[in-house]
Amino acid sequence: MKCGDCNWNWDEETTFILDDEEEILSKDKLNRRHYAEYLYFYLKEKGQKNNTVINLNAEWGAGKSFFIKRFYNSIKDAHPCVYIDAWKQDFSDDAFLTLFSSLSQQLQTYAGKLDARLIQSGHAIGRFTKGVLPEIISGLIKTYAGVDNVGDIAKEASLIMLKEHQEKLKSIKVLKKELTLWSRLAYENSFSCPIFIFIDELDRCRPDYAISLLEIVKHIFDIKNFVFIIATDTDQLQHSIKNVYGNDFSANDYLGRFFHRRFTLKQPELKDLINGVVGDYIGTDFENITSKTYPLTATLEDFSINISNVFEAFGLNLRDSIRNTERLIDILKSDLVKKKVDYIFIISLMIIYDKDRQIIDGLIGRRNAAQRFTDSIKQSSNLKGVSQAILELNLDTNQQRIGVNYIYRTASSRLFISQIEPKINLTLINYLDVALYFINNINMLKSSIKNNGQNSLMIISQQGPIDGDTAIKYLQGALIENGLNTSFYALHNYIELIELATSFD
Asked: By C-alpha distance, which of 382, 289, 265, 277 is closest to 319?
């Protein structure tokens, strides 16, 4: 047993290599390693005695591909492993040939050069590579050309098809025997059983292809020492099956025929997921990226948390959260972005653009646009609950980085800006109101400072703790107090940016 060759260190980057292509896998940011270990020991025990097929279930964006690739890398030196990206290969009309080809190619690494015993398998697979019925009918039509007796054709066709079926059954037996031999050859090279076969992205395949592949795994590869881990968004796969068999078809029961167990990856915390995405895309470029954005954020983690809190306020799922994060980063990394942009505001606009585009259309060129904007959100059936959603933000209130020391309480009273709490709470609606006012009035605010030194955003009118709305205003005021020459995007620029970003979906 070579369990000692398993490498469960997921705290560092690793390289996944397949077909001479390399992919860098990041460290395990979602703490998934212990799930892989648990699943490994279960499958190792089951696979030594029986064939086992596991459905690894998680929604899109939850990290299924990362999980099975790191799993593969952890055990590949101890067990023969095969990785198949089903979606990349569903251009083929023949799921069996695709599966067999991947197996034969990748297992050579473990079994050494394929010898004559394995070559025999090529004769067995001929019966599965394509349907024979069209060829049968075509041949019979030629044989009976000019004959009106359709019954003779049908009788002959049935006899040929029966013979073909019997040949297929024989071939299945031969193939299973030779697949067992494959595993034996691997073990002769000191690898341990069972063989692990990872099938990824099945839910993204054509429905007919996905079903065909499952049928093949079920009926041909039910062999001792073969373990299948099939990664899917199972809800999505069920929809695909219903597209073939009808909406009334019990897709869940149908899938239960193929899988011995279903292993569901715990949905990651949105904050952790977004932090991973932002880190992968921005990395060491955080300072440059955030030099284009406001409100000021101290760390990449706080930046990611703020973004994820916007998604939670809108009730976004993982897929849409990742997509909008990528959109935002695409904007911020673009060389076209030369002015400061409110990243909370623009990502909110992108979400609203997807959910109710008419609201965005109503922002441009209309009187009282801000009020209409707020009312439209409250009235939208696609944005239910958003008007009451609380937005929590982590802000940078370090006066050295802000560049402003204090806020005027009165002519003779000041409040140090560092006294603003770095973690604030306000409703999402109120944040959008405050942001829109600033964007629409930036030139007036700058002019007031230049002409009479009056910065209305920096004058405190309340006693006691500073609420979230007020804190945002002060930080906006500090931006222009510290740099009157700083350029900010106007509202129409925001609309143009989100239209550009969404064009790449």
From this structure: 277
Strands (E), 215-340: 226-232, 261-264, 293-294
Token pair in block for residue 127: 């019966």
Last residue of a domain, one of 224, 248, 264: 264
pTM of the full structure: 0.69
82, 198 Cβ separation under 8 angstroms: yes
Q: Which stretches in the chain have pLDDT values below 50?
A: 1-2, 113-120, 122-123, 126-151, 153-154, 157, 161, 165
Domain that holds residue 402: 270-502
CB atoms within 10 A of CB 57: 21
- Assign 83 to helix, strand or coil: strand
The tokens for 67 are: 């999980």
Q: Which pLDDT value is given to residue 135?
A: 43
Q: CA torsion sign, 473 to 478 to 483 to 486?
A: negative
pLDDT tens profile 135-153: 433 443 444 444 444 445 4
Q: Residue 473 domain-assigned?
A: yes
- Among 331, 348, 380, CA closest to 503: 331
**Same domain, residue pair 382 and 478:** yes
DSSP string for 316-383: --HHHHHHHHHHHHHHHH-TT--SBEEHHHHHHHHHHHHH-HHHHHTTTT-TTHHHHHHHHHHH-GGG
- Which of 245, 264, 283 finishes a domain? 264
Q: What is the dihedral of CA 73, 323, 30, 299, to 10 degrees?
A: 120
Determine the Cα–Cα distance for residues 205 and 91; give it in Å rounded to an integer. 9
Q: Do 253 and 376 belong to one domain? A: no
